[in-house]
Amino acid sequence: MTDPARRYAGAEVATVTMPDGAGGVREVRYLRRRFLPAPDDLQTLAEHTVTRGDRPDLVTAAYLGDPTQFWRVCDANLVVHPGELTADDRIGSRIRIPIPRP
Question: pLDDT tens for residues 54-63?
Fold first, then answer.
């Protein structure tokens, strides 16, 4: 089970049986794939203009009050890796800050 405030909350837990390397088998639990929500389904709280030195956690803390919610900003901007949000090639661009959904 995952924390309800985390990126994979609600993701289905699956089990696969595989060889254990010693002639037996073992069960491995994993979270099934999570698809990004459609950005148009997310309401925008604000837009942030990326500046040199920005970090996803700091931007998220400033707008949402919780640096661990950076994944919400990633989802709203169709970004998988958080560093892409504030990379040097994004300086001057605007990123959407979504209103958190329950």
Answer: 999 999 999 9
